[in-house]
Amino acid sequence: VAITQTEKSVSKTISTQAVRRIKLKDLLGKLIVYVLLTTGAIIFIAPWAWMVSASFQPIGKIFDWPPNWIPETFTLNNYRKFLKAEGFFRWVLNSGFLAVIVLTVQMFFNSLAAYTFAKRKFPGRDFLFLAMLGTLMIPGQLFLIPNYLILLRSPLFGGNNILGVGGHGMLDSFWGIIIPYAFSVWSVFFMRQYMKGIPDDLLDAARMDGASEFLIYWKVVMPLCGPVLAAQAIFTFTFVWNDFFWPLIVISDPKLRTLQLGLALFVIKNRTVWDIVFAGSVISTLPVLLIFIFFQKYFIRGIALTGMK
Amino acid sequence: MAVTAIKKSNPFSHRFRETLRQMRKSWTAYLFLTPGLIHFAIFTLFAVSFAFYISFHKWNIIQPDKPFVGLDNYMRLFEDPRFLRAVGNTLTFMIGVPLNLASGLSVALLLNTKVRGQAIYRTLFYIPVVTPLVVSSIIWKWVYQGDYGLLNYYLLKFGLIEHKIVWLANPDLALPALIIMGIWGGTGGTMVIYLAGLQSIPEEMYDAAKVDGANALQRLLYITIPLLKPTTFFLLVTSVIGTFQIFTEVYIMTNGGPLNRTTTIGYYLYVNAFRELDMGYATAMAFVLFAMIFVFTLLQWKFTRGDVEY
What we know:
The structure holds 2 protein chains of 2 kinds.
Chain A: H1 2-55, H2 59-62, H3 77-84, H4 88-119, H5 125-134, H6 140-152, H7 175-178, H8 185-196, H9 200-208, H10 213-221, H11 226-242, H12 245-250, H13 259-269, H14 274-294, H15 296-306
Helix pairs in contact in A: 1-14, 3-14, 4-8, 4-11, 4-13, 9-10, 11-14, 11-15, 13-14
Chain B: H1 2-9, H2 11-25, H3 27-54, H4 72-77, H5 81-93, H6 96-111, H7 118-130, H8 133-143, H9 150-157, H10 174-199, H11 203-211, H12 216-227, H13 229-244, H14 248-254, H15 265-275, H16 279-305
Helix pairs in contact in B: 6-10, 6-13, 7-10, 8-14, 13-16, 15-16
């Protein structure tokens, strides 16, 4: 009996030692994880944080060496200058207007098409759907020139006659951004995948009650699509707000510039006014950043759902 | 009567009429699709065919005369040193793709160890992704600035360099500098998609491996990475396609220089189309770009997709 007692106590000390060792190892592991993550996060956020900090400093301080991470003299003057500088305020409004319009138009047309592909049976459905998906691999650059020419030659727009000759068409107007962006096959695809999951019984019940197809789409299907609509709305808004390439091609009137376009051309033209540039950068980042922070759940889910960045 | 009977017995005409009947019955479906189909027909189908047509012509928008030149635009590409340089540069940009994937996966793995404040870390790594590319380019222009730039300050401070370097004006450093900026802007997106992939791996697989005595490294190499293969494939394809089209940062930060060292296909195409107004040539370039993307995607499909099953 005495021997087993000692054996037990020996094995007990060994096991507590082992447990302690494991705990220590875990703790060390955790510590390394936190150190790595925090270092990484600081490096990733630093350039961005510097932009925010610089936007609140007078221009002389921005050029200080070593850099002032925390503003020594805090000022809102850069923002005031930004809003007064030629065009900027207008460009903010332009961007907001375009993003909201494109978002609204796209959500309607995309969801209408997605509903039809997901829930209706009709001759040619699969062919049409696959034809659309098949074009997704084509890079945007291929559409650049033909779409530019199509906009230029749109009949009865921008001084063009019925044959599309004489004026600048939809170029140099908001039409040139809204119309090409009015429909997106990507969005249709992801909305369709989501709508497929809605049980047909619900639709059939509405049909029995004599609801029209439009009513079924609008009153039965759409209210059930909250998450995918939210994700798509966020994605479209972000895309249009952040877009640079297409406005660069389409817009030449300074009054019609979007914020990204205006800011980029301003930086290229004025190489020294970093105070205004940083204030402008913060403002042009703000809307999407706020959406991201407040709707993170939808944002992340949308990315996971669609793989779009 | 006899005539109807013959018509009915003809299976082709029967099927045709049946289809017509169904089409008439589901007219609302076509109505709902009409706006999308018109848009698709004009801005996708017609656009691609039109581009194909343009690529065989000398197409300068201010010249009324647009002669057919056959394959000339395509042949010129292979003799144009600036285009070949742009292809080389674009392929060099691809170095950023595996780096971006590795960096996103590392952050995702660290975040997936049930750390506290996961949401905060995730937000911090993701902020560069929601930052407009125009703004990122402005920020990094400052980071790489020679006299006041943040990078030079810290490299000098830690003794890693002896003199200030003008990063974006140095022919050997401008392209790597843009690649690093790309990793900064891309890691967050890769991380989020990898996190979703990691969360779909069942916990039991790790438990089973632990019972069998597999250590953390073995679990990573033999469970996590193989099971993430579909995610990796997806990210690889989309990142390569994205890299093929790099434009904005080049336009704002370097203008394709110094010495054309950062001229990408996307940038050179823009220059040809809208500065030189040589739209036939630029369109031919777009088709070559498309062909390259197509081949790359097929290759990736062949080499990574084959053993994705689990």
